[in-house]
Design a protein that fits this description.
- By secondary structure, this protein is mostly helical.
- It is about 65% helix and about 0% strand.
- It is built from 4 helices and no strands.
- Helix 1 runs antiparallel to helix 2.
Length: about 140
Amino acid sequence: MADEKSRVLDMLNEGKITADEAVKLIEALGGGPRFISKERREDMEEKIHQFAKDVKRFAGNTGEKIKVIYHDVEPKVKEATKNALEKLASGLDGLAKKLNESLEKDCCCCDEVEEKCCDDKPVDCCEEECDKPADNGPRPDEKQA
């Protein structure tokens, strides 16, 4: 009998049953009035009821606070993201310009007579950038006269 009562109390402690259900089960096992007094049961029920109200109030307050924080933070996060993307785009544009400038300096168009460019590169290094053919004859897309 003590084991059953102990299991009922464990179920109550774990929240699987209410205090009222625990009292009814213990009374059914034959240990009601002596085991938990009516005043004690009412006190437990009041505390459980108050706890449930506190949890609901806390949950409601927390939800409202989260909404306020979200509405306060959302525009700031959007603005920060926009600024970060603009800086990234600006940085990438600057990098692209520097790369283009560097590529333009690496190759130069030379006189057809010269065999090397100004930086000791073969004449055909800039063949795509200027219309001068390399020393190995006319370009395939040019018509011969």
